[in-house]
């Protein structure tokens, strides 16, 4: 009987050590590759948004913000807001005012704060996810967020992207407290960021409630209270009270909008469901394509029977455990529930609910999606391909919105230049008053609804009327005065218009003919009603 072969344990130990060293080296190389691709993705996103921000015309809310920012002084800005020029505190308009004074009056300058805030949001989200998940899952979370609903606000001269960035940074500081202990500078940073967001938008005061919910859940899980954090939350909440007088003034204007039977921002249950759908799957083709890519690449790798680098080859020896993700789940849960909090306040108090008030919900859904993906055994292998595909989707999709005036020139070429062009829809009027060439703009006039005609959604007309004392140069007149002066005129109507003027003229038989039609826009020749 042959003697048993003696096993060289030292040699086996050396082999295992070498194998572990190779695995760790592969993991390090893979992490560096994914990190480089995430940086590339953020750069591509920045380039695309900068290009879109420079070329897109302003849409109505941006027009209002920019017009306020162009006023000559801080006192004039506050006075305009107090007269209903815009429904927010003056901080954002002051930032745009001083930024444009330094960098120039261009659409790109007015949108720069939002563009860079969008990138800061991506960096904060990636940093947070990387603390708990592998780098490929963290990369997926960032691409999931920045390919979704957030880019739409990244190129707007509005405070929403800045609000999301500030909250993402405040969340990162809050998470630091659990990792490094209470720090005065981190707690002060949380208080300052939340107070700053409250000065950008009235609804941002509820960010304090969201972060307070995180802290409450943390205290319940850890059975202890952190007084410094609660003090910071209380202080930031009290700072929002500074805008209470302005809020009360603006609430009276808002009450004049919300009574309409078709008010666009009525807080209905269906609106809440639609908001959640947009937060999770807006630009669904991108998100679904990204998810499909992960499934297909993972399936292809699993079916290939590859004996080369396995997913396990990319694992480091010690990684985040499920228990260590508690904070991440708390953050995600509170952010996902936040739109419901906004909805309750809208139903009970403000009567106005809109998806742009709920954007931090995108962060929560992105965190949950990254956590789900992290359980896929092949995510470390397919991660680089996933981010590359996200880069290509970013470069192929250039967001656009706003009212372009290009279609007006061929339509107006067929008209009598002595006759004015009536615009009866407030949103369209404000956008064209900003974007149309001076020669074209000089023919526009906004005519308010005739006496006895009630709009189902008076929001835009009320907004135009509120600008009369602020900008007396705007061509705005009431129907009776206009009809007495102009027996004949043209009226512009588009498929997205909600004006009542065109329908009223048609019901009276005052629309004589279609002068021109371009796409979804019609230019009618009309006549004024006979005086009674």
Polypeptide structure, described:
It is a single chain. This protein is mostly helical and 532 residues long. Helices cover 62% and strands 6% of the residues. Helix 21 (459-466) links the parallel strand 2 and strand 3. Residues 1-7, 18-27 and 306-322 have low confidence and may be disordered.
The gist of it:
A six-stranded mixed beta sheet has the order 3-2-1-4-6-5. The model is unreliable at 1-7, 18-27 and 306-322 (pLDDT under 50).
Number of domains: 2
Outline the low-pLDDT stretches.
Answer: 1-7, 18-27, 306-322
Helical proportion?
55-70%
Given helix and strand content, the structural type is mainly alpha
Using only C-alpha atoms, the radius of gyration works out to 28 Å
Based on DSSP secondary structure assignment, what is the total number of beta strands? 6
Please provide the ordered H/E string of secondary-structure elements.
Answer: HHHHHHHHHHHHHHHHHHEHHEHEHEHEE
> Biggest sheet, in brief?
6 strands, mixed
| Gap between N and C termini | 125 Å
Oligomeric status: single chain
What portion of residues belong to β-strands? 5-15%
Placed side by side, the strands forming the largest sheet appear as: 3-2-1-4-6-5
Number of helices: 23
Give the rounded overall mean pLDDT: 85
Shape: globular
